[in-house]
Amino acid sequence: MPVIKSVFKNVRVNERKRLINLKTKNSFKNEVKEIKQLLLAKKIAEAEKLLPKVYKVLDIAAKKHVIAANSAARKKSSLARQIAAAKK
Prior knowledge:
Blueprint (H helix, E strand, L loop, with lengths): L4 H36 L3 H20 L5 H19 L1
Helix pairs in contact: 1-2, 1-3, 2-3
């Protein structure tokens, strides 16, 4: 248990930030899962429509430092390649 007053505050702040980061991380994970399910179901047009939304969510997560910028770029590139491959 913390003894110093400022440490109590740090614990509260860390918990609040952890929940915000968790919400951001879950949102992009759910969007990526949704696109992958659409690709498995061969619904390529719907996946293409959802792609800008996924890009936005990944960019926000990278901007908030929830995930690394390169990680977001890699996920976006991977999804774009999967959609392009499914079109063929």
